[in-house]
Specification:
With 202 residues, this protein is mainly beta. It is built from two helices and 17 strands.
């Protein structure tokens, strides 16, 4: 789940390695928060925004159930290949039970949320996504993040203009060996990049 808002209901996720089985119930709704003309990618036949999907699904993914990396869509034309419409916001208010039943990797953990920061969204885009989700987040919370400047030693690092956000307002239960909430990182850029991953729970 990336660049969307999941709203309401309950999701029960069982993970074995990179294989997922998840059950949605109680009226889980996918809300469009990314303002783009790019196509929507979904494994659900006939997917429509705003429709309630309560069923059992399976998937195989490399990273996590939720992802936010801000890179946008990879296109090959016009050349050279590049990313378009960068967006770094994923939101949730569904109640989640995340159960890792079998995870044998020795060098990684089974994260629920994967934040591999490549690009992101501006403050205004983040705030608009929070509003459009209809979840009831307080935009002032993100404003507090936006006002923050990291201070290292004697130097204040220049504040970035783009952010990667995963915000949650549901109840999340995580269980199972090597199960963790998030793996958030940036590919070796400035110290500030590690502050750009904002996770909110009210």
């Amino acid at each position: 789940m990336e660049s969307i808002a999941l709203k309401g209901g309950d999701i029960s996720i069982t993970r074995s390695g990179s294989s997922y089985s998840y059950i949605t119930s109680g009226g889980v709704n996918a809300v469009k928060i990314r303002n783009t003309t790019r196509p929507t990618y979904s494994g659900i036949t006939g997917f429509t925004w705003g429709t309630t999907y309560d069923s059992t699904y399976t998937a195989n993914v490399t990273n996590a159930f939720f992802q936010s990396n801000g890179s946008g869509d990879y296109v090959t034309t016009p050349t050279p290949p590049h990313y378009v419409d960068p967006f770094g916001v994923t939101l949730n208010s569904s109640n989640i039970v995340y159960d890792v039943a079998n995870y044998t990797a020795t060098d990684t953990y089974a994260e629920l949320v994967h934040q591999d920061v490549h690009n992101g969204s501006t403050e205004s885009v983040v705030n608009q996504a929070i509003t459009d989700s209809g979840i009831g987040f307080d935009a002032a919370d993100f404003s507090d993040v936006y006002k923050t400047n990291p201070f290292g030693g004697t130097t204040t690092t220049t504040k970035p203009t783009k952010y990667n956000v995963f915000a949650n307002k549901g109840n999340i239960t995580i269980k199972g060996e090597k199960a963790i909430f998030t793996h958030s990182y940036n590919h070796g850029r400035s110290k500030w990049d590690y502050f750009k991953c904002w996770k909110y729970k009210n």
